[in-house]
Amino acid sequence: MNTYSFPLLGKHIALRLVQLSDAAFIYALRNDKKARFLTQIIGGVQAQEQWIVEYKKREALGQEFYFIIQGGESLGTIRIYDLKEDSFCWGSWIIKDSSPSYVAIESALCIYEFAFNTLGFRQSHFDVRKNNVKVVAFHQRCKARIVREDSKNYYFNFSKEDFASMQRHYAKYCYCNIIS
Q1: Is residue 28 part of a domain?
Q2: Is residue 178 situated within a structural domain?
């Protein structure tokens, strides 16, 4: 099993692995109006705690990584999951409304840096609800490609080469200190 250095450090933020003590924060975020585009959660804080207990088993096996986005306080969540031979999915991305504007781009840069350059993936696959217009636009600005769609979702691919271009475009936000 590989060991990685956490937290992942961005220019203004850090991504640290979720802990059981984060259950109430995650539950509150997932019940906010912004979470309407994410998979709905069932149950209360106790159910979220149980989900985290099960997640920590997958984390220990290197099958999934779930982070709290921090910038002095907890600002949001972001997760890597559905790991395939050469591709990873990321999501569970939700950021508090009161967060500074750079949190979204820095958290995306950090998650890509970790997945591409530490974990060694060549591409990312993910889906976004069509009605989540701001997030769809964000991914398109970053040059992610829609590879298919259904009635609810767009399905995107984003390569390691796309990430290199994204880093150049968003250079003022780059400073991800990832150590493998």
Answers
A1: yes
A2: no
**What distance in Å separates the CA atoms of residue 123 and residue 116, rounded to the nearest whole number?**
7
**Number of domains comprising the chain:** 1
pTM of this prediction exceeds 0.70: yes
Spell out the per-residue pLDDT of the chain, length 180, in tens. Answer: 456 778 888 889 999 999 999 999 999 998 876 666 666 777 889 999 999 999 999 999 999 999 999 998 999 999 999 999 999 999 999 999 899 989 999 999 999 999 999 999 999 999 999 998 999 999 999 999 999 999 999 999 999 999 998 888 777 666 554 433
The CATH number of residue 146's host domain is 3.40.630.30
Cβ partners under 8 Å of residue 73, min gap 6 = none
Q: How far apart are CA 75 and CA 97, in angstroms?
A: 9
Q: Which of 80, 67, 71 is nearest to 125 (CA)?
A: 80
Assigned domain for 179 exists: no
Query: Would 3 be classed as within a structural domain?
Result: no
